[in-house]
Structures are given as structure tokens and as C-alpha cells.
Amino acid sequence: MSDDSEVIHVEGLAKMLGRTDASIREGIRRGVPWLPKSFKMGAKHCWLKDDVRNFLREYRDGEHAAPKVGRKRQAPPTLRGVA
């Protein structure tokens, strides 16, 4: 397979994301949010290079940030309030 292909597989995605093949495969298995959406051709998971690049741009711009859960923190009490 040549490097100018628009479709990449696990090895190509690992290289683009700076991770190992094993971490990509484990991420696919667990359904982690840090992987772009893939599709299958036969038995192989595949990604389009443009989709991966857009996914990385969205991460860079903070569009994939998880919302913070829980109550907002109140300011801690100070010694001024103690008489």
C-alpha cells in the first residue's frame, strides 16, 4: 500500500496519533473517545485521512472537551467572618 492512500489502517493511525498499534486496538475494543470514528472494510478497521485531521483539529480547538460535572465550588471561608 502506498503512503498517498486516503484510507489508513491501525498502523497509519497509530503513526498519526503518536501511539502504539496495541493502544489503538485496545481503544477500538473499549470504545474510547480519543479515537476518531472508524469503519470496517472486510475485517480491518479503517479511517479516512481527512476525517482524522478534522478530528484532531476539533480536539485542538476544544470541541471534544468533556463537560465538568458536579456543583460549582464555593469560596472557602475566611478568618474575617470569625468574631
Structure description:
The chain is of the alpha+beta class and 83 residues long. The protein has a domain at 7-60. 36% of the residues lie in helices and 12% in strands. It is built from 3 helices and 3 strands, in the order E-H-H-E-E-H. The protein has helices spanning 10-17, 21-30, 49-60; strands at 7-8, 39-41, 44-48. It has a 3-stranded antiparallel sheet. The longest helix has 12 residues, at 49-60. The protein is elongated. The termini are far apart. The model has no long low-confidence stretch (mean pLDDT 86).
**How far apart are the first and last residues' alpha carbons, in Å?**
77 Å
Gyration radius over CA: 21 Å
Note poorly predicted spans: none
Rounded mean pLDDT score: 86
Structural class: alpha+beta
Instruction: Say how many strands there are.
Output: 3
Q: What is the element layout, followed by pairings?
A:
Elements (H helix, E strand, L loop, with lengths): L6 E2 L1 H8 L3 H10 L8 E3 L2 E5 H12 L23
Antiparallel strand pairs: 1-3, 2-3
Helix pairs in contact: 1-2
